[in-house]
Predict the 3D structure of the following.
Amino acid sequence: MLNFDTDNPFIAICAATSRIVQLQSTSYTKHSGVLQPITTKQLNGKYIYIAQKLLESLADRAVSGDTGYISLALICQQLNANHNSIDIDELKLTAKFLAQDGEFFYDIDNGQTNSTRKLTKLLDYQIRSDRVRLTTASRLLYRVTSNFKDWMFEDKEVEKIARAIKTGEFHRIPSLVESNIVMFRSLNEEITRMYESSDYDELTESYLNRRHVYQETLSLSQEAARTAILMLSSDEVRADIDHLRNTNPEADITTRRLLAHINELIAAIEALSRNFSQLINILQKPRDYRLGVIDFSSQADDFAKSTISEEVLLDWTNSHFGGSYRFISILLSIFQVH
């Protein structure tokens, strides 16, 4: 996940999946030459805005326990009270569109084509009363966007591995581990980009201000992964896995393989932890230092107050100025005078 042009999770998710949706409706074949993007209309961007506000309003109500049908007129009134300027007719059009399902085609491993209409509509709409409520798909979308670009609670995801071990759902462990590894490695790459680029100021400052929370998340994640290791190493769990293999020979699950998966996860967490600590150390230093500016006065003062050999000074000037014996002699004379 994790470098987006917008901080809006809803827009980021829509943008990330839009090309896949367009692929579903393409008329191109394997013999097609140049692939042109789908033509979209700039003016229709307002409908994405309205859809977001509508779904957010219903999700907020669901959090407070109100999961029934809600009047669109009431939603429009409340949204406009927050200076959204949403037209009721456009809100109804958006709701009707989101309430329509569509057939989604996909192939499975054996080449057979399946289709589904589940999860393709985001609203249940009572047309006579102009009332709407969330569907399973829209609740899933809300859940995804609420966790977007925030790994503050990522340790809870790692804890699912220990829960799978406890309940004997060993077949789920590889996918759980893999999803966590992808997350931690992606975060690691994002953090690397942060201190290599000047475009992340706002996000890096956010990390600096909440560093203790994220450091706790990393610590708890490591603890949860090591707990899973201990559980897999117990005689009871080993016996359960052996029983599973004996009763279901097709299950490609062994204790050694599961341990290898989790150890790979621990390595990913530790790599992120080291990189995050480096980021925090950089952010805590003056901005000039982050940009690579050398504080010559400080360097010279440190040299002057210490015993310096010509060999040490040569190494220092080679690393900072490319090396110059004439420059070294001048520096030595300065430090001796100092």
Q: What stands out?
A: The longest helix spans residues 255-283. The CA atoms of residues 99 and 123 lie 5 Å apart. The chain is about 65% helix and 5% strand. Residues 1-5 have pLDDT under 50 and may be disordered.
